[in-house]
Amino acid sequence: MELIPDLLETLARECLLRTSYKQFPLISSVCKVWKREISLPDFLRHRKASGHSQELVVLSQARLDPVSQLGSGKTIPTPVYRISILEPESGLWTELPPVPGKSNGLPLFCRLASVGTDLVVIGGLDPVTWRTSDSVFIFSFLNSTWRNGTSMPGGPRSFFACASDSERNVLVAGGHDEDKNALTSAIMYDVAEDRWALLPDMGRERDECAATFHAGKFHVVGGYATEEQGQFSKTAECFDVTMRQWCQEAKDFLAHGMSTWPPVCAAAENGELYACCRRDLTVKSDDTWQKVVNLPDDVCNVSYMAVRRSGKVVVIGSARYGEPSVGYNWDMSNSRWVKLETHGKYKGHVQAGCFLEI
Hints:
Blueprint: H1 9-17, H2 24-30, H3 32-39, H4 41-49, E1 55-62, E2 68-70, E3 73-75, E4 81-87, E5 92-95, E6 111-115, E7 118-122, E8 136-140, E9 145-148, E10 161-164, E11 169-173, E12 186-190, E13 195-199, E14 210-214, E15 217-221, E16 236-240, E17 245-246, E18 264-267, E19 273-277, E20 280-285, E21 288-294, E22 301-307, E23 313-318, E24 326-331, E25 336-340, E26 350-357
Antiparallel strand pairs: 1-4, 1-26, 2-3, 4-5, 6-7, 7-8, 8-9, 10-11, 11-12, 12-13, 14-15, 15-16, 16-17, 18-19, 19-20, 20-21, 22-23, 23-24, 24-25
Helix pairs in contact: 2-3
């Protein structure tokens, strides 16, 4: 069956490649042929190669509600977190539909990862009971629907590192259990198969660690052991997905002054690793961290960052905790920060984020 009757296949496919990601649900509903076409991995690859893909910053962001009054005192309720979407090229903000049955919002401190055209939301704390959640929710940008994934195995785990290879798998490592014991264990989730697999343990315990995926490896950065309680390590470990093994620990992965709190990291396609730490944007090249530029004062408390294909760096943060969230693009070509317009609805606190190109 032809994609578009009486039109050459190459031209018909070009028409689909040029559509906005927001039209994917409509395209999927038109006919089975169109739905199958945009679901193919080659469709996404061709879309990126042809320059028609769209970059999205996906955030777990608090919805801004007025403070409620109780008698003569004031009570600040637990924030309700939802999924906000920023298109960094245009500066447009939108919101995804809520997870069905989650009227109190996303789990607190959940982790986000992108795989193909899917967004994966993993773990966190129940916003009502504050109990550790092992939940997995998946949003498909192809049909604009949520589905439940297989729960995380291995018992309760929170404040873990999480990153994806962007194509099939989400990797999870470290964190702590319900007794606040730091963990060495690691697991991997195959989104297409909806299946978890156990991975070899890391070389050391890592609670409240950070993670990024680059150069074919899952990097787990910083964190601390149970007895260290907040004394963040400067070390890092990386898991080679192809070899299915952990590499030798990098003892001084983080530079001096970057170990108080795990930096917010993001990898560029050229293999360089960027990090926001304190008031600086830094880059690691040839195993050496170098300062690139000062962060703007109103975003120096960075919640999330990503390196775009164009070479621009997008950062989301605030002047300090509790202040409104803002966003910036930094252009490597001219070393300029450009502030993104942020409407009041999208100024809430950001707990997690991921980058998606579809």
